[in-house]
C-alpha cells in the first residue's frame, strides 16, 4: 500500500495553498525518519537501508512500511557537525502512539572500510524483519502535526569482527521523536459566511484551508515554528476581509485563535 500521501504543501500562491486544506483535519501525521551516528573507530560504514517499519498502537495491522531505498556512509552524519543527520524516509502515517520501530537493511550493499580496505558487512540470517530500535519513549502522533524521528546508529556497538577477519552488522540504534510543526485553529463568526483562511510566513510561503460552513471551525496543520500573518478571505463579498499579524506558531503546540468575528463592510 502506498502511504506516501503528503499532508501539506508550502506554496508560492494562496490559491494553490487551498489544495492542502483537506489533509489538515485527517487522522494522519507527517513523519520524517532521519539517521545520525554515534561515532565508531572506522573510516566508513556504508548502510543500504531498505525501509523503516513503524508500529502504531497495539492493534492488528498497525504496522506501516516507510520505504527508504538509501545507501550512505553513516559516519558522514554526526550531531553537531555541518551534516548532523540524513533524511531516510518521509511519509504520512495514521496517528496514535508509536509502539515499535524497526530498521530494515538490504542484504547486500552494506560495507565497512578499515585501514583503507573495504569489506562486506554481513547481515546474520533471520533478520529480514529488521532490527528493533530502542525508543527513548513511546511518542504520540497528533493529527496535523509533523514529526521527526531521529535514529542514532551506534557505530562502535553495531559492528562485530569475527575470528576469520570478516565483519558482521548487528545494528544498535536509539530512536528519539520530536514534533517539528504546529497547528493554527479558529472559528469564523458567523459560521455560515464561509471563509478561506491563509497562514503566511515571513518567506511568503502560504498554506490555506476553508472554514466549516456549519460550525465556522478551521485548522491549518504542519506549520513550522515562527511568526505568521493570518489572512481571512470571506466568500460573501458584503463582509470585510480580515488580517491578523504576528501570530506565533510553536512546534508541537496548537495556537488557538478562538472566535474570529467578521464584519459587514
From TrEMBL:
Record's signal peptide: 1-22
Which keywords describe this protein according to UniProt?
A: Signal
Q: Where is the DUF4382 domain?
A: 28-171
Indicate what this protein is called per its UniProt record. Answer: DUF4382 domain-containing protein
Specify the taxonomic lineage: Bacteria, Pseudomonadati, Bacteroidota, Sphingobacteriia, Sphingobacteriales
Amino acid at each position: 500500500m502506498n502511504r506516501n500521501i503528503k499532508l501539506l504543501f508550502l506554496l508560492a500562491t494562496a490559491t494553490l495553498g487551498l489544495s492542502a486544506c483537506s489533509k489538515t483535519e485527517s487522522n494522519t501525521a507527517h513523519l520524517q525518519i532521519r539517521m545520525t551516528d554515534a561515532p565508531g573507530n572506522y573510516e566508513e560504514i556504508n548502510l543500504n537501508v531498505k525501509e523503516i517499519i513503524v508500529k502504531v498502537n497495539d492493534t492488528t495491522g498497525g504496522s506501516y512500511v516507510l520505504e527508504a531505498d538509501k545507501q550512505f556512509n553513516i559516519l558522514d552524519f554526526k550531531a553537531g557537525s555541518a551534516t548532523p543527520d540524513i533524511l531516510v524516509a518521509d511519509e504520512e502515517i495514521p496517528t496514535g502512539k508509536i509502539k515499535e520501530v524497526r530498521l530494515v537493511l538490504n542484504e547486500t550493499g552494506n560495507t565497512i572500510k578499515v585501514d583503507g580496505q573495504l569489506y562486506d558487512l554481513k547481515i546474520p540470517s533471520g533478520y529480514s524483519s529488521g532490527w528493533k530500535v530502542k525508543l527513548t519513549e513511546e511518542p504520540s502522533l497528533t493529527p496535523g502535526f509533523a514529526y521527526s524521528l531521529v535514529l542514532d546508529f551506534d557505530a562502535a556497538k553495531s559492528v562485530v569482527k569475527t575470528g576469520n577477519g570478516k565483519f558482521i552488522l548487528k545494528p544498535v540504534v536509539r530512536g528519539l521523536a520530536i514534533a517539528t510543526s504546529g497547528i493554527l485553529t479558529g472559528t469564523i463568526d458567523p459560521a455560515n459566511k464561509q471563509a478561506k483562511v491563509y497562514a503566511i510566513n515571513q518567506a511568503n510561503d502560504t498554506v490555506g484551508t476553508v472554514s466549516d460552513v456549519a460550525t465556522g471551525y478551521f485548522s491549518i496543520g504542519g506549520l513550522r515554528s515562527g511568526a505568521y500573518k493570518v489572512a481571512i478571505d470571506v466568500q460573501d463579498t458584503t463582509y470585510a476581509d480580515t488580517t491578523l499579524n504576528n501570530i506565533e506558531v510553536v512546534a508541537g503546540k496548537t495556537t488557538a485563535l478562538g472566535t474570529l468575528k467578521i464584519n459587514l463592510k
